[in-house]
Design brief:
Elements: H1 2-6, H2 10-26, H3 31-41, H4 53-64, H5 68-90, H6 95-103, H7 106-110, H8 118-137, H9 141-157, H10 161-169, H11 179-201, H12 205-213, H13 220-234, H14 236-248, H15 254-273, H16 288-301, H17 306-327, H18 334-338, H19 341-352, E1 357-360, H20 364-373, E2 377-380, E3 406-409, E4 418-421, E5 427-433, E6 442-446, E7 463-467
């Protein structure tokens, strides 16, 4: 019995769950988390940046607890399921070795309580690999249907799930034309079809955002930021050991091949992507699951040396100190930096004097404002301040400020704005607007596709402007200049 408990993951999971719940309850939301909470207030088959699973998770927890703990409750549950699933794939590694590896990976600890689409992505990556291992051994109807379900769940969580599916398939040439595999794929596509239809009906906002808006020219800083970011995501010891284990491995097992392709493929794909623009370090997060599995396999056949324990223990201790520092104010500025938004939004509510608030160039601030005050807020993009379209361009909160008095908060020291330093230490540039037309949800369509045009041609084309707002637009407005972009 003692040996069973010693090798059981459940004591580790219980401790992790308790600590993550405490962290969730006493750490204020980030701006992105507040946006995902807003997803749950406006549930749809999709959103501009992400599929809707993260909205379902934040909404389910918030239904039980109307605070930060509620927003993150299901995140803690997903993290526990992720650890349990990975450990099942890692066995027979000793639980203390598994725990030390998991606790030393920075991004895995961040995703133990922070609400983000990467959390369900990691969970379904682990569950997918559990099913994938079974499917490689035996292609029957049960495994086929299970595979289709987890395929769909992966992509419902985050679009990067497609990469997990493709990269694990590539080394399995025998499955390229396997009827069971393609039945699973078709089943998964059918389960995912509501989101595909949502994309089509909304003019493919996510594809335009990721494939067009994010593309750019090569800059060395993007490459170096990506490389440095991966060391921060995995920690250099874990990443180095995993890559060493892959290149040293002589395994002929098909499942191991899929794991290796998934790790190297994700790292290489985003490395090349950094040549054409900025890459967020966490975009490779799905590789965490196979990385831990590969290390579990490696340490089941190789000694766990003292330098492994010391280096992994060092990273685990640093991460633990930072997490405590978010709760207890002993690291200068850390707790304050991550726990001022509640006070900031409360002060802005007083400044607004009962009127709606509109933030410039930010989807995070209006989300935080609505979470912490319960009042309506919106976003307006100002190209002078670097604004870009976001989820608020698809939502209809603009009706609350159209031709209404509202507090407009700038995202930079804009001219013609008043200045005040809030008690929380934040500089605020603001002014009141009384009769502003909000021009969201206007669409211009022309027939340029009927004409044979060349670069530099100047032509006059008829255009149709459609207004999907529930209010009329005055195009003869002489007070506010109208600019089309």
């Amino acid at each position: 019995m003692t040996e069973k408990i010693k090798n059981s993951i459940f004591p580790f999971l219980i401790v992790a769950i308790v600590l993550n719940l405490l962290q969730s309850a006493f750490t204020q939301l980030s701006g992105d988390e507040a946006l995902y909470w807003m997803y749950s207030r406006n549930m749809d088959w999709g959103f501009k940046d992400h599929p809707p699973v993260i909205g379902l998770l934040t909404g389910a927890g918030y239904f039980l607890f109307k605070n930060e703990l509620g927003v993150r409750l299901m995140i803690v549950v997903c993290h526990a399921i992720t650890l349990w699933s990975i450990y099942r794939l890692c066995k027979p590694i000793a639980i203390w070795k598994f725990a030390l590896i998991a606790l030393s990976i920075p991004i895995l600890q961040v995703y133990s309580f922070i609400a983000t689409p990467d959390v369900p992505l990691l969970m379904f990556t682990a569950l997918y690999l559990l099913v994938w291992r079974k499917f490689l051994d035996k292609q029957n109807l049960q495994n086929t249907l299970l595979l289709g379900m987890v395929m769909a769940a992966l992509v419902w969580s985050k679009y990067h799930g497609i990469l997990v599916i493709v990269l694990t398939l590539l080394p399995q040439k025998k499955l390229w034309f396997n009827k069971h595999y393609w039945l699973a794929a078709l089943f998964g596509i059918a389960l995912y079809s509501p989101h595909i239809m949502w994309q089509a009906l909304n003019d493919l906002p996510t594809m335009k955002f990721h494939l067009v808006d994010r593309s750019g020219e090569f800059e060395w800083k993007h490459l170096f930021n990506y490389l440095g970011g991966q060391l921060m995501v995995f920690n250099p010891v874990v990443l180095g050991l995993a890559l060493f284990a892959i290149f040293k491995s002589k395994s002929t097992e098909q499942f191991s091949k899929s794991l290796h392709w998934l790790i190297v493929g994700l790292l290489a794909l985003f490395l090349f992507s950094s040549f054409r623009g900025r890459i967020e370090p966490h975009w490779t997060a799905a590789a965490l699951v196979p990385v831990i599995i590969v290390l579990g396999e490696y340490f089941s056949h190789n000694p766990f040396k003292n330098w492994h324990r010391i280096s992994l223990g060092f990273f685990a201790a640093v991460i633990l100190l930072v997490r405590i520092g978010l709760l207890v104010d002993f690291i200068p500025q850390l707790k304050k930096q991550f726990n001022t938004d509640n006070q900031k939004m409360g002060e802005l509510k007083e400044l607004a004097q009962g009127h709606p608030v509109c933030f410039m160039n930010s989807y995070q601030n209006p989300s935080l404002y609505m979470f912490y005050t319960g009042e309506i807020a919106h976003n307006i993009n100002d190209t002078g301040g670097g604004g870009a379209k976001n989820q608020y361009d698809l939502w209809s909160y603009n009706h609350a400020i159209h031709h209404q008095r509202f507090l407009y908060v700038a995202s930079y020291p804009a001219t013609a704005f008043d200045y005040v330093r809030l008690e929380c230490g934040v500089d605020c540039y603001y002014r009141f607007e009384d009769d502003l037309q909000v021009m969201n949800h206007l669409y211009i369509r022309t027939d340029e596709w009927l004409h044979n045009l060349h670069s530099g041609d100047e032509v006059s084309l008829p255009a149709t402007i459609s207004n999907s707002n529930n209010y009329e637009i005055n195009f003869a407005d002489t007070v506010h200049a109208l600019h089309w972009k």
